[in-house]
Amino acid sequence: MSHMAASGTPGLATPALELAGIEMHYGFVRALDGIDIHVMPGEVVGLLGDNGAGKSTLLKVMSGAHKPSHGTIRVRGEEHTFHAPSDAAEAGIQMVYQDLSLVEPQDIAINLNLGQEQLRKGPLGWIGFVDRKAMRRSSERELDRLGVRTAPMTRPVEMLSGGQRQVVALARSAIRVTGPEDGAAQGILLLDEPTAALGYEQTKNVEGLIRRMADQGIAIVVVTHDLPLCYEVADRLVILNRGKKVADLPVAGADRDHVVGWITGSRASMFEAPRAAGTVA
């Protein structure tokens, strides 16, 4: 069953993120070969492929870490050229890496506000003193909005479980692409193996948060080896094999054996043109 709500509503026909004809060359090697991919507001796309298929390279193109050799990138219909991840972030794209990039000794509230700290009012703010109480209050409101129940805001990240850390990293990115206490999310989240090394219950918590973020209108691309995760949270699957897109299909009704076949290369691409009658192989 498709979860997607926002992308099916009238007036949201423009993809949140669209890449067309993306190629990435390293010398004579084509890491990406003519990739077309899009994600709608409120949609979760699972990006699948074996090691070396091009998933990580495509994610780096989306996040601004790599500039493609050819192709175009559009965010909400507007063409962009990313020279660095900061350009992608400015366009509303946030990447959550496997290492999470959290500051271990600092508490949850500080981590949720990294780079966007609230300063104290008056002279103390002028010289850079942060308002920890205000950040804790706003962090609690944001986590409530996302339906997140985690440890107290004052708890250092180094004392959290792996699942709690992943939730903090996801929530921080969701807050950044949504804007503070803004109900209309317009951003795009790129998630790199968000449930790697998590147990069953922690994985379920992360799955729930991904769906709630999508329900708020955030467009999400999930790179993962975890097929059950895709079937739980994704609306659509895009599968790469050796730098080419070989499948793009709704999760609803997607045969798992076919999906595995596209990932391993034992199943032919669904985009290969049928051979004309009378041609010789």
Could you characterize the architecture of this molecule?
By secondary structure, the chain is an alpha/beta fold. The protein has one domain: Rossmann fold, CATH 3.40.50. The chain is 31% helix and 22% strand. The strands form two sheets. It has a six-stranded mixed sheet, with helices on both faces. It has a four-stranded antiparallel sheet with strand order 2-1-4-5, covered by helices on one side. Strand 7 (188-192), helix 7 (200-215) and strand 8 (219-223) form a beta-alpha-beta unit. Helix 6 packs parallel to helix 7. The longest helix has 17 residues, at 162-178. 42% of the residues are buried. Mean pLDDT is 81; it is low at 5-12, 180-184 and 275-281.
